[in-house]
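Hi support team,

I submitted a single chain yesterday and got back a structure, but I'm not sure I'm reading the token output correctly. Could someone confirm the output below corresponds to the sequence I sent? I've pasted both exactly as they appear in my results page.

Thanks,
R.
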Amino acid sequence: MTDQLQARKEAFMAWVKENRGEQTGNWYAPFLENLGSLLERYQLARGYKSNFFEYDTYESFKTVYQQITAQNDKDIEDFIYGKRTPQYPKDFRITRIQFRHKYAEEEYEKGERSKPDNLGGIPDWGILMRSYLLYLFYAENSDLTYPKNKNKAVNLGPELDDSINYWIISAGEQARLWKQFRTEKIIAIGWDYLGDLHTYEKKNQ
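Hi R., thanks for writing in. Yes, this is the structure output for that exact sequence:
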């Protein structure tokens, strides 16, 4: 990787850490660094740069993003300015799930994952690209401030019981495990590689 690409990668990681989550930049960067190669290997998309950090402007990457996702200008503008997070078009919603499954299967075959259907720790392909698109836009428009996601619970006023911690969890892709969760009275996450969560003393671990 050239010094220029490394600098862009590090700037992206710092921006995402500041605006999207403490460890998110560290998590996303290695996937973006190899995304073009992965997509071609999985036969999900062809003709793109192996390392997505080679796309160095918002407009150049927006073209790539739209070619892959088929998302329209209005939807992109809405999430760029923090107005709403629009759904992806149907075809890409299917493809992005295939990406995670193919990555998991590949790691399982290499002995690096416990099960071929364990998707823990694999970021959503669409969110990876959205994060890089956001970074490029705000890097080029430094006079603008990215509207960080605020805790919407504060707007609930007296309806919110502050003595209770509220959590939102997905019961598998498309809530496929919801019936099992209810029947067995469990809540679970698929990140087997983390091991026993009791061994972690702090959230940021």
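A quick pointer for reading it: The radius of gyration is 19 Å. Let us know if anything else looks off.

Best,
Support desk
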